[in-house]
Design goal:
Length: 99
């Protein structure tokens, strides 16, 4: 692991994290839209809902949406900035099937 990589450069790292935060802000809006669709579908299917069901639906749908998009965005951030190339494969060349 020698040499300078993208996330080691403060300017590139700042740009990458700014892009990540912008993506997550838009995904928060998308998550809110998913919550609204879920609430409308549940209301249409089951009629009026108790307050606790509404709160549980909002929290469950929004947090699940944000967790999925956050993990995916971090995978793209890691790959797009060259951070994945910093990992050393200690098993490479030891006779594995997929050398």
């Amino acid at each position: 692991m020698t040499g300078k990589y993208a996330l080691d450069d403060p300017q590139i790292a700042a740009t990458a994290w700014r892009r990540f935060r912008r993506i997550m802000a838009w995904m928060a809006v998308g998550g809110t839209l998913c919550v609204l669709v879920a609430l409308l579908a549940l209301h249409r299917w089951a009629g009026p809902m108790p307050l606790h069901m509404v709160i549980a639906t909002v929290i469950g749908v929004w947090l699940t949406f944000m967790l999925g998009t956050g993990l995916m965005a971090l995978a793209f951030l890691s790959s797009g900035t060259g951070h994945d190339e910093q990992v050393m494969d200690r098993l490479k060349g030891q006779g594995d099937i997929d050398d």
